[in-house]
Structure formats: C-alpha cells, structure tokens
Amino acid sequence: MKKLFFLSSFAFFSLFTSLSHAALPPMAQSLREMNAIINHNFFLSPKMIAENIISIHKTELGFIVETTHFIIPIQINYLPQEMVGPRVFEVHFDTDHLIAKE
Fold it and tell me: Which of 3, 25, 41, 75 would bridge 62 by S-S if both were Cys, CB 3.0 to 4.6 A apart?
C-alpha cells in the first residue's frame, strides 16, 4: 500500500511540476512576440513592402518598430488562457499613429 501511495504521489507531483515549469522565461516570450511582429502580414502591404526594419524596442504596452521611413507603435494584447505555458497574444499595429521619419 505504501508503494502504491508513493507511486501515485510521484506521478501527481511530476505532472504538477512539469505544468508549472511550462511557462517561458521573459526573454523567450519577447522573442516569440518579436518573431510574430516580423512575420506579420502588415510588412507585406504595398506601403511597407520596401521598408527595412532598423530596430525593435520593447515598451510597457508592446513594441516600437523603426523602419527606413516610419516609426510604428505595436501593441501586444495578451489573451486569457486556461493552461500554463507560453502566453497567448495578438499583435496590433497602431497604423493611426504611424510616424513618418524626416
């Protein structure tokens, strides 16, 4: 009986700890967000297709992307999720506040 209790306890704790350690570290989460920004269809639009991305800066609300001719504020909206793991998010390009560089 002790052996069965030990095995069931071990299985429970190993499952519990594997789920709790599934969240990404902040650097890995930021890299996922930057990758989503770079691969977004926004940069395939006729206005942006010829732009080169010069820099990406993280802010409190998301990112600021600097291209050859524009500064683009990007908002990251985190979605609710039921399981522990990488945060689920949406990328929103704030085209109303697109800043043209001089």
Answer: 75
Task: Name the phi and psi angles at 92, rounded to 5.
Answer: -125, 115
- Determine the pLDDT at residue 12: 53
How far apart (Å, rounded) are the C-alpha atoms in residues 63 and 73?
6
**Residue type (1 letter), 7:** L
Q: What single-letter DSSP state applies at residue 22?
A: -
Number of structural domains, the chain?
A: 1
Is residue 15 included in any domain, yes or no? no
Beta carbons within 8 Å of 87's beta carbon, 6+ residues apart = 23, 24, 29, 78, 81
**pTM, full prediction:** 0.71
